[in-house]
Structures are given as C-alpha cells and as structure tokens.
Specification:
Largest sheet: 3 strands, antiparallel
Number of strands: 3
Order of helices and strands: EEEHH
Shape: flat
Radius of gyration: 17 Å
Number of helices: 2
Structural class: alpha+beta
Strand order of the largest sheet: 1-2-3
Helix content: 25-40%
Oligomer: single chain
Number of domains: 1
Amino acid sequence: MANKWSKVGPVKGRGGKQIGTKVRNNSTNKVHVLLNPHGKYGKATVELQQGVRMTNDGEIKRNQSGEPLTLTKEQRAYRAGYRSAVIDQTKAYKAKHQGGKQ
C-alpha cells in the first residue's frame, strides 16, 4: 500500500531559513503545512502582534461572514507562554554549549 502523505517541499521564512515542510495527501491532493519549532515561534509572535488567528500558511483565519478571528484571552496566554518557553530553552542551550555567552 502506498504512503498516504508525500513531502512536497520546504517552507522558507523571511530570512530564507526553513520553518516547516509542505506535505500532500496523495488520495485528496490537499497540501498542508507542518511547522517546525522555529516556525511555530514565528507564528505565535505574529498572532500576538496582530491579535488574530492565522493558518500555518500565514493566512488570517476568518469566520463564515469573512471577519478575522481574534485571539481569546486563553489563546493569547498560551502563545505568550510558548514563546517564553522557547526563549528559556534557547538561553539554557547557549549557556551549556557556548560557555555562558548569550
């Protein structure tokens, strides 16, 4: 039996760094974007700055009448906590591998 998903290609960020991968469902031909941690961090940052929800493709999520979906208080807190955790992990990694230089 053939694989249901196949890799289409990388997703690049503004600086050219890979932030995720595009995959295609072979039976329906729908393409989805899967973000790596760097891509999730960037998505959370943009969502917090703009106050709206976004797809992994960078499009603004909209309701049935076409209005942008705003972040709830809980969604805003989750994204802020995620960003804080990534920053803490980065500082710990740098302290361990670079002799404390940050």
